[in-house]
Amino acid sequence: MNLVITGATSFLGRSTTEYCLKRGHRVYAVVRPDSSNSGRIQGLLEAFGSQIVPVYMKLEDLDRIGDRIEETCHGWIHFGWDGAGSSNRTQQDIQQKNVGDSMCALRGALSLGCSRFLFSGSQAEYGIRDTLMSEADICRPVSEYGKAKAEFYRQACEYLAGQSGFPQTEPPIDYVHTRIFSVYGPGDHPWSLVETCRKTFLAGGLMELGECTQQWNFLHRDDCIRALYKLLETPGRIGLKGTENGIYNIAAAEEETRPLREYVEEMYRLCGERGSCLYGKRPPNAEGQINLIPSIKKLQATTGFAPEISFQEGFEALCREEEKRL
């Protein structure tokens, strides 16, 4: 397939690009001209040559991507989103601009003849919850980040309805809206909980944390990418209308959901019980004290996806890599 991947230098975008290249697909990797991470695709260029084509464009110009790509593309994976860090998740202007930029991406996908548009939404769309989260639930996001992800879903559905007469007829593109939960793994942001715990504990330092009493669910990066790829390649209509709302949670299995403090204690143990930690020292993040209790039954039923990497296996592999660098 010919694929377009935006945010191709991001944590998930870069690895998804590599995953698709290894399976023989041609990837147009969209990178912002001013991106400080543009060097992240250099290794892919060296390894895959003309199979990967960097496209340097601003996100707000993506509706004109047909001026840069002259062949039909089959799928579009949209990771392009500014202000994903905790401090920017509360900035309404930044987050709402992302909505408009993502609508430009959707129009760009239509102009290239893409048959499926895969959007990287977020668990933040659900808001503050302490019960199981499933795709049919009403969303009540509290952060500007979560509101913007949910608003894009609303606008995309409205736009596609105007293009096709949906819901009476199928939309002109198979729109799949993923809600990604808590992902960790190689290349993760250095300020994430897993990365911070790993580096602090291995160095014998003090880790100051919040209460960590909320329910949590961690998914390894490689399992996340496999889930996304399954949603990309599964035949038939699996998006909007094809499976009603076209939304899919991407997370670990339900049995992996447990108190966040248990994950912290496991990381401490796997780091050889070096260093120490204090609870109740940090405030909640931008969304407040949230619980992550995802259901992935819809994803499993549609694609057959099953996570393969346990948290222990994934974290131990990260520790081995860190110890090589120490």
Amino- and carboxy-terminal Cα gap: 41 Å
Mean pLDDT over the full residue set: 92
Give the proportion of residues in helices: 25-40%
Regions with pLDDT < 50 over 5+ consecutive residues? none
The number of helical runs is 9
Number of strands: 15
Radius of gyration: 20 Å
Q: If strands are numbered along the chain, what order do they take across the biggest sheet? A: 3-2-1-4-5-6-13
Approximately what portion of the residues adopt beta-strand conformation? Answer: 15-25%
Task: Tell me the series of helices and strands, N- to C-terminal.
Answer: EHEHEEHEHEEHEEEHEEEEHEHH
Structure classification: alpha/beta
Judging from the principal axes of the Cα atoms, what is the shape? globular
Q: Strand count, sense and closure of the main sheet?
A: 7 strands, parallel
Description:
This protein has 326 residues and is α/β, with parallel strands linked by helices. It is 36% helix and 18% strand. It has a 7-stranded parallel sheet with strand order 3-2-1-4-5-6-13, sandwiched between helices. The mean pLDDT is 92.
Give the tags:
single chain, 326 residues, alpha/beta, seven-stranded parallel β-sheet
How are the secondary structure elements laid out?
Elements: E1 2-6, H1 11-22, E2 26-31, H2 42-48, E3 52-56, E4 75-78, H3 92-111, E5 116-122, H4 144-164, E6 174-180, E7 182-184, H5 193-202, E8 206-208, E9 215-216, E10 218-220, H6 221-233, E11 240-241, E12 244-245, E13 247-250, E14 258-259, H7 260-270, E15 276-278, H8 297-303, H9 311-325
Helix pairs in contact: 1-6, 3-4, 5-9
